[in-house]
Amino acid sequence: MKRLTSDDDLLAGQKREQKGGGRGFVVLVAACLGQFLVVLDVSVVNVALPSMRADLGMSAPGLQWVLNAYTITFAGLMLLGGRAADLFGRKTTFLCGLGLFTAASLAGGLAQEGWQLVAARAAQGVGAAVLSPATLTILTSSFPEGPARARAIGTWTAVGAGGGAAGGLVGGVLTDALSWRWVLLINVPVGAVVLVAAAFWLTERRVRGGRRLDLPGAALVTGGLAAVAYGVVQTESVGWSAPGALLPLGGGLLLLGCFVAVEARVRAPLVPLRVFRAGTVSAANAAMFINGMAMFSMWFFISLYMQNVLEFTPLQAGLGFIPQSLSIVLASKLAPRLMAFTGARNLAVVGVLVAAVGCLWQSGMHADGTYATTVLVPGVLMAIGVGLAATPLATLATAGAAPEEAGLVSGLVNTSRTMGGALGIAVLTTVATAHGGDSSDPAEMAHGLGVSFVVSAVVLTVSVALMLTALPGRATPPARSGR
């Protein structure tokens, strides 16, 4: 298959793909399914953790790392994955990331020891970090800026959000009907089908030759992000003032500072600092980071409330998420149409405000609550808000990216959201615990979880202020940056 090696070739390739409606549809489906798997595996293991512990004899700290091993490697390596897509080809990177993710899922599903499961989850995170930026890059390089790209990103956002929301349902159904192993093994047949479709239908895209991967920068940013993520995770067990949390946090920040210094001096940086000179890109990523802090933990806390306070089974809790899942998907699909009338910034602001209202309503959860009043309505509001805000922010964050930097910008989008979520779940879990969120008494637990949603509403208000002051109103996206 012919490789595209210049900007003119890239534009010509886009036109050819746009004429082939069937090919464009398959490209969209492949990219969205890849993103669905990546996001699904952030939350799908939650309801299966007790079964994993019983079957493999894992300790409580070991069980925590079934979640953390995936999140840390995913967040820490995503910028490297995005840049690799630019330099080595979007199709090649997509296939490599999905292949590793699928193989690691098989290894995790067949694990016989706790350490094997944790190692497999870490490998899944590496594959996800390579795969996720490539999925968005494939879309932004296959659809021109404007309504077509907005619709594609809307679909990608909806599917990704649906993956996060569906994690509890999928995990509950598979664990109850089969076993915990199938929350990982289910990725294998789906991944295999997407691999075959992508191998035949995706067109390779890469920038001009002669560019090398910035290995020092890659090592510094990966080590820095991974150390910060590890430090944040440690705060859940040792607190914010303990050396076990402060040392990795401080070391991570130091590495990130060194990364900025290196990127300002090397000839072919991993992250050209000029990308951040575009205020729209910086502000949109900052907003996604803040929104991730507030909303990433929503599914986790609501799941705890349904199972530990309302005494739902894992399957019932999973079924309870169906309205939220549908709401976030529908809102994400509606967002591109609304953007044409409101503008990207205004729609994002409306979405975040709706989510904040949902958080305030959710903060009123109590031991005698009912599903309809304390879960369904506020959960749907939060889901609608997230769906309405995510698409315009992703559109603003990727608009105007040069072809050779599309993977980088896509990696920044995913890194901002994931790192914000990792930080948010640690902070909000600490808040909930401090107010009784880990108590065995249902009333105290409900109160602690409710306080965390009050904090989420405050964080979302900060995001609204940032967007109103730093993002353009109804202005068109920024022009494509130069080299």
Kindly list the characteristics that best describe this protein.
Growth Hormone, Chain: A; 3 domains; disordered C terminus
Question: What can you see in these coordinates?
Answer:
The protein is mainly α and 483 residues long. Helix content is 78%, strand content 0%. It has three domains: 22-203, Up-down Bundle (Growth Hormone, Chain: A); 215-269, no CATH class; 272-472, Growth Hormone, Chain: A. The protein is built from 19 helices and no strands. Helix 4 runs antiparallel to helix 18 (406-434), helix 5 (90-109) runs antiparallel to helix 9 and helix 7 (147-177) crosses helix 17 (371-398). The longest helix has 31 residues, at 147-177. It is globular. Residues 1-22 and 475-483 have low confidence and may be disordered. This is MFS transporter.
Estimate the mean pLDDT confidence.
Answer: 77
Structural class by secondary-structure content: mainly alpha
Name given to the CATH architecture of the largest domain: Up-down Bundle
What's the level 1 CATH class of the largest domain?
A: Mainly Alpha
Strand % is: under 5%
Q: How many E strands?
A: 0
Fraction of residues in H or I helices: over 70%
CA distance, first residue to last residue: 27 Å
The largest sheet, given as strand count, sense and whether it forms a barrel, is:
none
Query: Can you tell me the overall shape?
Result: globular
Supply the CATH superfamily name of the largest domain: MFS general substrate transporter like domains
Tally of helical runs? 19
- The CATH topology of the largest domain comes to Growth Hormone, Chain: A
Number of domains: 3
Radius of gyration: 21 Å
Oligomer: single chain
Low-confidence stretches: 1-22, 475-483
Instruction: Report the order of strands and helices.
Output: HHHHHHHHHHHHHHHHHHH
